[in-house]
Write a structure and sequence with these properties.
- By secondary structure, the protein is α/β, with parallel strands linked by helices.
- Helices cover 32% and strands 23% of the residues.
- The protein has 11 helices and 16 strands.
- Helix 4 packs antiparallel against helix 6.
- It is globular, with a radius of gyration of 18 Å.
- It starts with a strand and ends in a 6-residue tail after the last helix.
- Keywords: Hydrolase.
């Protein structure tokens, strides 16, 4: 369906960090109001993030009208009201163990995302300041990660698949070396959200895959979807969406595949595009 020359948007998929949020985990008043107005018109607003739902900022998690969320880079599509996943794309124990061994070779700080929660090694929790990029989030990591003695033993005992393994290299120069080696591994998909980490999911798992399965579940056509993002892990969902938006602060690879370039996340770029493409306002 067309309205004013543009498809009728039924679902808005939004990255959080660098897109919907400002740098301090806060949603601006204009962004919030635009999303609330869209939801009041029946449009689904879906956070799409590398985080678990539980670890999203409260300003998003508690936003009235949020019904679904794409979590852990598409590994879990979460039904907020039913408190359950409607789609999962998980890694088996063998792959997780291999990724943890790989991270240990490069002395990484590893995290495991399982059943909507994120875990780290107890022995490394007090060492976050030794990891260059992770040190910027030391307080957040210590307050949100659940420590366990052994990640491999914990995953084995859990007896279920893992959403994501997150590796923080200790040395910056190891990042490209690790990236190149992981690209050759056919069992996994890798991406990054721009924070100097390597995010590892099951092969074929990404935000685009999660968005595809959510749209199939809701019988919404991709032409009726708007997606916005700023970094590498947002690329697949921008390729899927009929109306793709790169933020003004996005990396060039994301801008090159987007249909629209918005203002930056600090300039209410999300609100700008929601008002234009969804609410049909003159701006």
């Amino acid at each position: 369906m067309e309205t004013g020359g543009c498809p009728l948007i039924q679902l808005i998929a939004l990255d959080l960090d660098g897109t919907t949020l400002t740098g301090d985990n806060v949603i601006s008043e204009r962004n919030r109001n635009a999303l609330l107005e869209a939801m009041a018109q029946g449009v689904l607003v879906v956070p799409a993030t590398g985080r678990t739902f539980e670890k999203m900022p409260s300003c998003i998690r508690e936003l009235p009208g949020i019904q679904y969320a794409i979590c852990s880079n598409g590994a879990a599509v979460y039904d907020v009201r039913a408190d359950r996943n409607i789609y999962e794309n998980l890694m088996p124990y063998e792959t997780v163990a291999e990724m943890l061994r790989f991270g240990d070779e490069y002395k990484c700080f590893p995290e495991v995302y399982l059943k909507g929660r994120s875990y780290c090694r107890l022995s490394q929790l007090d060492l976050v300041m030794e990891y260059p990029r992770l040190s910027d989030y030391a307080t957040h990591v210590k307050s949100t990660r659940l420590p366990v003695e052994s990640l491999r033993r914990f995953v084995l005992d859990a007896g279920c698949g893992v959403e994501k393994v997150n590796l923080w290299p200790k040395r910056r120069e190891d990042f490209p070396v690790m990236w190149g080696q992981l690209l050759e591994n056919q069992a996994v998909s890798i991406t990054s959200s721009g924070f100097g980490n390597i995010e590892i999911n099951a092969h074929g798992c990404d935000k685009g895959d999660g968005l595809l399965h959510l749209c199939e579940y809701l019988t919404i056509s991709r032409e009726n979807v708007m997606a916005a993002g700023d970094n590498l892990n947002d690329g697949p969902m921008l390729r899927f969406a009929g109306e793709s938006v790169a933020m003004g602060n996005a990396i060039d690879d994301v801008k090159n595949i987007a249909k629209y370039i918005a203002k930056t996340n600090l300039e209410d770029g999300v609100a700008e595009m929601v008002e234009r493409l969804v609410l049909k306002k003159e701006i």
